[in-house]
Amino acid sequence: MNTKEIINAVAKEIEDKGGIRQVFLVACGGSLVDMYPAKYFLDSEATKLHVGMYTANEFVYATPKTLGENSLVIVCSHGGQHAGIRRCG
């Protein structure tokens, strides 16, 4: 299966389950700052999508109630060494 086929298969599976309704951007420190352009873009362009930014600790210890099957979690880490980031996986 090539990359395009994989992407199409994943997109179809997501659509079959009702699509993505919320996006969670999770990071710490400078990595969290890097998420602002994505949040700005999604807030500006998406009409049916809730977008939230969380530190790794917030996401792990105060997990949003809306997190579910129709959620996309994007985790960013420059170094990958922060314990909170590792717990998000």
TrEMBL record:
Keyword Isomerase attributed: yes
EC id: 3.5.-.-
InterPro entries recorded: SIS_dom, SIS_dom_sf
Domain of life: Bacteria
Gene: frlB_1
GO biological process: carbohydrate derivative metabolic process
UniProt-listed PROSITE patterns: SIS
Entry's Gene Ontology molecular function annotations: carbohydrate derivative binding; hydrolase activity; isomerase activity
Segments forming domain SIS: 10-89
Keyword NAD on entry: no
Organism, as annotated: Klebsiella pneumoniae
Name by which UniProt lists this protein: Phosphosugar isomerase
UniProt KW keywords: Hydrolase, Isomerase
Uppermost EC category: hydrolase
